[in-house]
Amino acid sequence: MPVTEILLLRHGNRLQWTLNPVTGEYSSNHPFPTGLPADPPLASFGVRQSQETGAYLGKVLGDLAKQDRLRIYSSLFYRCLETLRPTVETLNEITSSATTRKNIRVRGERGIGEWFGRAWFIQPKPAEPSRLRRDFFPWLDDTYTSLVVPPEHGERIDPLHDRVARALAMVVQDVDREFIEAGRGEEEVTLLLCGHAAQIIASGRALTGQIPDDHDEDDFKCFTCGLSKFMRRRVPADGEVYYDDDWRNTGGVAGGWDCLLNSDCSHLSQGQERGWHFHGDESFDSYEVAAALGVKTSHGSVPPSKL
């Protein structure tokens, strides 16, 4: 059973952005590192949260990293990678093997990226991995290609859950295959995934197969820099799929998982901060009439056809 444990980490407290749903324009009062207005860095408080998280995960994951039994995935939005920075740097300091350091490079998976809701305009996407690695995060694996990419106009809540479920199943299957093909199929592997509030709630539901009738139910928590832990029940048998469209009724993706920690914040000096849960479907379809005004993209430009 290669992947036995999944840790979900929400990014730290971030700076804010605003959206004008009539024009589809995202903006901010602060210059963001990537220049994308819906891609903020951490606030100073979030930086401290990430440092405390890095110190904690360095101890928890240190031996796994040394033994090459850890793989790290993240949303490609800046705030998630910035949250992981202290953790990755700590793990690199305590591992001496070049191979091990290469294997704990962060794999940017857009399937576990942010949820912006369904819109008539094009929703934000992160900067390209090559740029993120070159300019900001040298430990990002820019050779990795996302297994799942969100639709460019976003999605409603149910499709969001399906997107996250599919991404999780494919990531687990990919790592299972990686270790089996290397002749290490009996080793136990941990995945650390850093993402966003809505995605973490959807992840808990997809892994356990426990999804409430009301999406707004406050079941899986997602405090900033909170850690959730899931243990795998079983590996799918030969010929059994990791992802099924009916995952809601099959006990969870990739064999099913049990939740042992639900956004634990005991490693943070200030404890639980900025909890979040769904508040109805987030959709901007009702503003579609404004499309005639010209769609502004996430970097602030107007498509030539509208000029």
From TrEMBL:
InterPro entries linked: His_Pase_superF_clade-1, His_PPase_superfam, Phosphatase_SH3-domain
Domain of life of the organism encoding this protein: Eukaryota
Name recorded for this polypeptide: Phosphoglycerate mutase family protein
Organism encoding this protein: Exophiala xenobiotica
